[in-house]
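Action item from last meeting closed. Structure (297 res):
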C-alpha cells in the first residue's frame, strides 16, 4: 500500500523527526525461533474461499485517495478478483489486483506464527502500470470493512511490494506502530528504514510518517515463490522475508474516540488487491508463546 504522494494535501500530525544519522546496511538473522504450542491451522483449504469475506473499493481504483469519488462497490469480488486456481501443480489463491479491495479471513487470531508463500504473475493494472507490484498482508484487522479509503479494514500491514516487502504500514488514521529506524536518503519520504539498535520511531497511519521501510530487500524476482513469516505476540510482531528478518514492531495500537491508543493484540488476516496479480498458497498459522529474536550478524 503506497500512498506517500497522496498525503501532501492532508492536515498531518507528525511524530518527532529522527536525528540525522548515517544509514549502514545490517545483516540480520533470526534466532531462538519458538516452537508451536498447538496444532497448525490452514487458512486456505485449497478448494474454496468460503472462510473469507471479500470487499471491493471503487470501480476506478484511481478514485481511491480522492476526496470526491463514487461510492465503493462493497461486498463482492469472489470468483473474479478473488478465486482459487491451480498454479505450478497445486491450488493457489489468486488475487487479480484489477479492482482494489480486500479478502479477509473470518477467524480472529493472536499470538501466532503465520507462514505463507506468494509470487507475482508479472501483470499489473492501472493506475499502477508503471509502479512496483503491490499487495499486502494485513494483520490485527478489525472494525468494519472498507472504512480505510473505502477499500480496507483498519489493520497493521506487512507490506508486499517489489523492493519494500516487509515494510510496516499502519492502515487507518491514527493507528500506530513503534520500531527503531534511521534516516535513509535513498528511499521515498518519510525516508525511515528499520535498523536494529537505532532510536525508537513511531509510524502513524494517514500522516506524513506513514511507514517504516524494511531493513533490506529480501524478495525473489517476479515469477518466483517467496516465503513470508509473520510472528505476532501481544502487541509486538516480527516480519520475515525468505528467512531474513526485515522488521520488528511493538506498541501496536489504534486510537479510540477518547484519544487513547488501545493495544492491538489480535484480529483478522487480510489480503489486499492493489494493482498486481498475486498468487498465495500454503497459508498456515500456529500458536506460539513468545517471539523469536533478531540478531545483527
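Sequence:
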Amino acid at each position: 500500500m503506497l500512498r506517500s504522494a497522496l498525503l501532501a494535501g492532508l492536515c498531518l500530525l507528525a511524530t518527532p523527526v529522527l536525528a540525522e544519522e548515517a544509514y549502514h546496511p545490517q545483516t540480520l538473522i533470526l534466532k531462538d525461533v519458538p516452537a508451536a504450542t498447538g496444532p497448525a491451522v490452514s487458512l486456505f483449504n485449497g478448494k474454496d474461499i468460503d472462510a473469507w469475506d471479500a470487499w471491493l473499493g471503487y470501480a476506478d481504483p484511481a478514485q481511491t485517495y480522492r476526496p470526491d469519488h463514487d461510492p465503493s462497490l462493497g461486498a463482492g469480488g469472489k470468483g473474479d478478483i478473488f478465486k482459487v486456481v491451480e498454479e505450478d501443480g497445486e491450488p493457489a489463491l489468486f488475487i487479480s489486483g484489477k479492482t482494489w479491495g480486500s479478502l479477509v479471513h473470518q477467524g480472529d487470531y493472536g499470538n501466532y506464527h503465520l507462514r505463507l508463500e506468494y509470487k507475482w504473475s508479472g501483470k499489473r493494472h492501472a493506475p499502477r502500470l508503471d509502479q512496483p507490484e503491490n499487495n499486502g498482508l494485513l494483520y490485527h484487522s478489525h472494525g468494519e470493512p472498507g472504512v480505510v479509503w473505502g477499500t480496507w479494514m483498519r489493520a497493521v500491514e506487512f507490506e508486499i511490494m517489489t523492493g519494500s516487502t516487509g515494510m510496516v504500514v499502519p492502515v487507518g488514521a491514527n493507528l500506530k506502530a513503534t520500531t527503531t529506524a534511521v534516516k535513509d536518503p535513498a528511499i521515498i519520504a518519510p525516508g525511515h528504514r528499520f535498523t536494529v539498535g537505532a532510536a525508537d520511531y513511531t509510524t502513524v497511519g494517514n500522516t506524513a510518517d506513514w511507514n517504516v521501510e524494511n531493513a533490506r530487500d529480501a524478495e525473489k524476482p517476479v515469477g518466483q515463490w517467496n516465503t513470508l513469516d509473520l510472528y505476532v505476540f501481544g502487541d509486538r510482531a516480527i516480519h520475515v522475508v525468505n528467512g531474513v528478518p526485515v522488521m520488528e514492531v511493538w506498541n501496536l495500537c489504534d486510537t479510540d474516540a477518547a484519544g487513547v491508543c488501545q493495544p492491538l493484540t489480535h484480529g483478522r488476516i487480510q489480503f489486499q488487491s492493489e494493482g498486481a496479480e498475486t498468487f498465495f498458497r500454503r497459508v498456515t498459522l500456529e500458536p506460539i508463546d513468545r517471539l523469536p529474536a533478531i540478531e545483527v550478524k
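Note appended to the action item: The radius of gyration is 18 Å.
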